[in-house]
Design goal:
five-stranded parallel β-sheet, 50% helix
């Protein structure tokens, strides 16, 4: 299978650099380039790429709105956010909009290729370190839940699945969760798959956000 990739960035040199790296891989094919969000949305609709490399800060329609629209019109497409800084608040907003992760623009080529393959396979590309930073940025915007009702979808989860979700929400990797809960890593992965299915979530990132917004984990 060839992973079809759309590159969206307002810097022509960066688009060329990404395209050059992708063309060296037998399982990848850059199928289009967009210089702004509007072009990215139009090309995503026309080309239906497997993965979109999406810059956050572009003129006109930015990467956040473009991400939201790409996912709406091409649900099978996965979006990887490109950002200069790993604390870019816009990148976090794009994750909540449905992106499958984000990469720094100075990411090494081999890491970029691994991330694209992971996202194309349905995984999220956010390291535990970045997940923890995501939580730090989300906490000020999440109600303390003192008067709110918990999300009813929590009732769909088993006790063990809730335990796994709590650990995911704390930013632990599957390996760390396995060690914490004394489970096999494959078992953790199976639990996480069922959690995403039951909660109707796209990926691990949305699971983290859900854990906080549903009051399973408190912002403090």
């Amino acid at each position: 299978m060839t992973i079809r990739i759309l590159i969206a960035d307002d810097e022509a040199l960066l688009r060329m650099a990404f395209s050059t790296v992708l063309e060296t891989q037998p399982d990848m094919a850059p199928v289009g380039e967009a210089a702004d969000g509007i072009q990215a949305i139009r090309l995503a609709q026309d080309l239906r790429p497997d993965v979109v490399l999406m810059d956050v800060r572009m003129p006109g329609t930015d990467g956040i709105e473009a991400t939201r629209e790409v996912i709406r019109i091409s649900p099978q497409s996965r979006v990887l956010i490109l950002t200069t800084f790993d604390l870019d608040e816009y990148a976090f907003t794009a994750l909540k909009a449905g992106a499958s992760g984000f990469l720094l623009k100075n990411t090494r080529p081999e890491e970029l290729l691994t991330a694209i393959r992971s996202v194309a396979a349905g995984d999220a590309v956010v390291s535990p370190r970045i997940t923890r930073r995501l939580l730090e940025n989300l906490r000020p915007h999440i109600p303390d839940g003192s008067s709110a009702e918990r999300d009813e979808r929590l009732s769909r989860l088993s006790a063990r699945e809730r335990e796994v979700l709590i650990q995911v929400g704390c930013g632990l990797s599957n390996t760390e969760i396995a060690a914490t809960l004394y489970l096999a890593e494959a078992t953790v992965k199976s639990h996480l798959g069922r959690i995403l299915q039951k909660l109707e979530l796209r990926d691990r990132i949305q699971a983290v956000i859900f854990a906080y917004e549903s009051r399973l984990i408190h912002p403090a």
